[in-house]
């Protein structure tokens, strides 16, 4: 721990000396970053403001970014529309939360175990297998929908939440990301743990995974965003098993009369991904700055 703290302090001092600037340079840099940040946050501000705009402001041309006469009518209309559905709103919410939580946990576990075997164990065909995984990153979900549907049909998982959850376990982005981060863990650390009598499971979950916190936090952001917005329309047909994203999309498809409720839907669907992004981003920055390992 002492050696680790000395290494971190030395790294911080070298970085400070490397990026040293004058007060004017720091001010210009701050102004530039603030300007770019304002442009990046502008779509989010516009989406939030739209949810509180009355109908006349929603269709005003040219459109205004900020709301002039804020109202909660859009959210009340959304509540009335959800109340008219013969499937209760909590059912849609439960389906989405269940898919997101189980899919996220399974994805992290499967990706971690596969990445550990590919990076830290040598076996015939390891490099070829990884090249195949990398090549699958080029395929969009639309390309794999038909093969996935055939597989789900033979497994008997059509019209089941498992048809959305299980494919998320094997998403190639998780394996690729975890393997790349895992290459930074020195083999000498794992060998020392083996000499002390640690098992493979202990090494993976007690030594490797804590040092891969930036990787699985980043992976969590991507997975939650994907599963939270999943509709399951290709595999799920029963209304009781539909997701929240599907229910919201049906509301926004109602045309001009539901434009206000559609604006409220946009904000509601953004709450979870934005919250997870903010929390995970702070953790990632902290762990990347303080928990790096060097050979």
TrEMBL record:
Signal peptide: none
UniProt main location, coarse: membrane
Record has Cell membrane as a keyword: yes
Transmembrane feature ranges: 92-116, 128-151, 157-178, 215-237, 257-279
Domain of life of the source: Bacteria
GO cellular component labels: plasma membrane
Domain ABC transmembrane type-1 positions: 93-280
Record keywords: Cell membrane, Membrane, Transmembrane, Transmembrane helix, Transport
Cell location: Cell membrane
GO BP terms, alphabetized: transmembrane transport
UniProt cross-references to Gene3D superfamilies, sorted A to Z: MetI-like (1.10.3720.10)
SUPFAM superfamilies on file: MetI-like
Membrane topology field: Multi-pass membrane protein
Pfam families the UniProt entry points to: BPD_transp_1
Presence of keyword Transmembrane: yes
PANTHER family listed in its UniProt record: ABC TRANSPORTER PERMEASE PROTEIN MG189-RELATED-RELATED, BINDING-PROTEIN-DEPENDENT TRANSPORT SYSTEMS INNER MEMBRANE COMPONENT
Family to which this protein belongs: Belongs to the binding-protein-dependent transport system permease family.
Protein name as annotated: Carbohydrate ABC transporter permease
Species whose genome carries this gene: Holtiella tumoricola
Lineage: Bacteria, Bacillati, Bacillota, Clostridia, Lachnospirales
